[in-house]
Amino acid sequence: MSGAAAPAALAEPSERVGRAWTASLSLVNGAIWAGWYGPIQILLALQAAELAPAGTAKESVLAWVTGAGAAVSMVANPLFGALSDRTTSRLGRRTPWIVAGVAGGAVALVLLAGARSVAAMAVGWCGVQLTLNAAFAAVTAALPDRVPPGQRGAVGGWLGAAQILGVVAGTGLATAGGGLAGGYRACAAFAVLGALPYVLLHRDLVLPAGRRPAAGAVAVLRGLWISPRRHPDLAWAWLTRFLINLGNALALLYLLYYLRDVLRRPDPGGGVLILTALNGVTLLGTVVVGGIWSDRTGRRKPFVLGAGVIMAAATGLLAGWQTWTGALCAAALLGVGFGVFTSVDLALMTEVLPAAADRAKDLGVINIANSLPQVAAPVLAAPLVHHLGGYRVLYAVAAAIGLVGALLVRRIRGVA
């Protein structure tokens, strides 16, 4: 790199972003999450039960399909992030990938609706994960690209609010779609429509071709490794996020089956929607407030620690109070904790990134801590449910894992 001033795409942002920009970025973020969680919360579970071969448990089919998709996500997010960092299009580094990712995700969702075998279902879901992760990597990188550090908690809060609203919207669309095909198509349409305001109304920062990082395949792949010895704060932040998300993934993976098989709810799909909506209400009550409060205090770690402890306590309720009332209380409490965690942890992550030129790639590596739990959770959950004590043990283990993750945030040194 030359001694010339960094272009806007690589500079540390100093000008506060406006409400319209924040709202449109939040909308496309929520649309992506709707495309993921309509299937995860409802459609994939129903499809697994419908397509499971004789003698194969629906839980095993769901675990295999979601695990395969999460494995794709784990690779796709940092890879597309690295490609985004190297994009010199006149439309900017991020916008082309948002457009391609959302459009591809919509197509993949429609194709998934037509799956008639477990293999086809797995391929379709992997396609959804591949494409939507291309868009998500670009959306996430827009935060450190455009938002100054002192505003990142607040903007992260709005992104978190959009995330849970996207989960609720996806769950509602999946439930109201009139069947598998209708549910998938509704989620696809919502993903596309939600991306339009950001793509059409806001100009992205353009990276000059002369400032592009090395673009060869070897350089891209080599750059996916971030040394934990050279960047210990990023390593501890990654592990904190991974363990808290693993505890959360274990709690949510079999929620539909938990309501159906343990609580004997007559309408488990409707029960999932109720719990998701309640979780969303309490999350919305804390996600923006937590981010703003963190910005004003200039501290991140106490908020992440407290949020992780609250989430672990909520998961523990599912282990010790296996009633519909217990599930409602757990959903509400989980929303309180996850709201604060979502906004403040995202701001914390942007403050441990090694280099501006690799923001999307580095955030993609960090986002593996979101997708890897989706791979690990089915591997852990299936034997816990079927052989090691059932849902009570599952939720106790999930609470313990989340608590350990919360405590590890104290090992981060460079962030208050």
Task: Tag the structure with descriptive keywords.
single chain, 416 residues, mainly alpha, 14 helices, 76% helix
Structure characterization notes:
The protein is mainly α and 416 residues long. 76% of the residues lie in helices and 0% in strands. It contains 14 helices and no strands. It has helices spanning 19-51, 58-85, 95-113, 118-146, 152-176, 180-201, 217-223, 232-253, 255-261, 268-297, 301-320, 324-350, 359-386, 391-408. Helix 8 runs parallel beside helix 13 and helix 11 (301-320) runs antiparallel to helix 12 (324-350). The radius of gyration is 20 Å and the shape is globular. The relative contact order is 0.16. The mean pLDDT is 90.
Helical content (DSSP H or I, runs of 4+): over 70%
User: Class by helix and strand content?
Assistant: mainly alpha
Dominant shape: globular
Task: Name the beta content range.
Answer: under 5%
Q: If you compute it from the alpha carbons, what radius of gyration comes out, rounded to the nearest whole angstrom?
A: 20 Å
Mean pLDDT: 90
Tally of contiguous helical segments: 14
The number of distinct β-strands equals 0
Parts with pLDDT < 50 across at least 5 consecutive residues: none
List the helices and strands and how they pair.
Elements: H1 19-51, H2 58-85, H3 95-113, H4 118-146, H5 152-176, H6 180-201, H7 217-223, H8 232-253, H9 255-261, H10 268-297, H11 301-320, H12 324-350, H13 359-386, H14 391-408
In summary, what is this structure?
This protein has helices at 19-51, 58-85, 95-113, 118-146, 152-176, 180-201, 217-223, 232-253, 255-261, 268-297, 301-320, 324-350, 359-386, 391-408. The protein has 14 helices and no strands.
